[in-house]
Amino acid sequence: HPSPLPQGGRGQKSFSLSLNLILRALVVAICLALIVRTVVRNLDWVTNEALFRSAVYVMPDNAKAHAILGHELKNRQSVEERERAIEAFRTALRIYPEYLHHDSAVTGSLGNLLFDLGKREEAFEVLEQAVGTDPEWGILHYNLGLVYARDGQDEKAEAALRRALSFNPEVPLFRSAFSRFLIERGRFEEALAEAD
User: Fold this and answer.
1) Contact indicator for 82, 113 with CB cutoff of 8 Å
2) Contact, 127 vs 89, CB < 8 A?
3) How far apart are CA 29 and CA 73, in angstroms?
4) What would the pLDDT profile of 80-100 be if each residue is shown by its tens digit?
5) CA torsion sign, 195 to 153 to 99 to 88?
6) CA dihedral 10, 16, 17, 20 (to 10 degrees)
7) What is the pLDDT of residues 144-188, one digit of tens each?
């Protein structure tokens, strides 16, 4: 006849002790995994560029992530990084063409970068397309006017800057840019009148 199982014997204590050790080891392993993940994730936040590159990697179809990366890279000194900024802006506009209507800084920055890197025709194409898409947005005329002025196309620059002012006469940026344009061309009295 079978012997009864011991109640509360060594076997049960051993099992309870093993279970306790396994649970503790599991908690320690989870904590270590979370620490490692935090350290790795913090590497994404070391610089703005690393953060925005991570955002582009995680959300490759997000126009805003590409635009923000472009803004981060646009003022860098190296031509390679500025080319990457151009690509980021172009990608943002390819993903979401309506960006032209929501963030003039994207087209303005793209146009200025293209111009700075000697891609004049592309610069004017981007900026003129932006103006054509939304002809009553003063900032687009302002951006185009600045690039025309840098290119020595004074008549077009003046027309674009005046157009920007006609849509937004209260914007100090437009008024000061136009006054500066006039001063640089020796038209001091007109500049003074515009500054008032």
Assistant:
1) yes
2) no
3) 39
4) 999 999 999 999 999 998 887
5) negative
6) 180
7) 999 999 999 999 999 999 999 999 898 999 999 999 999 999 999
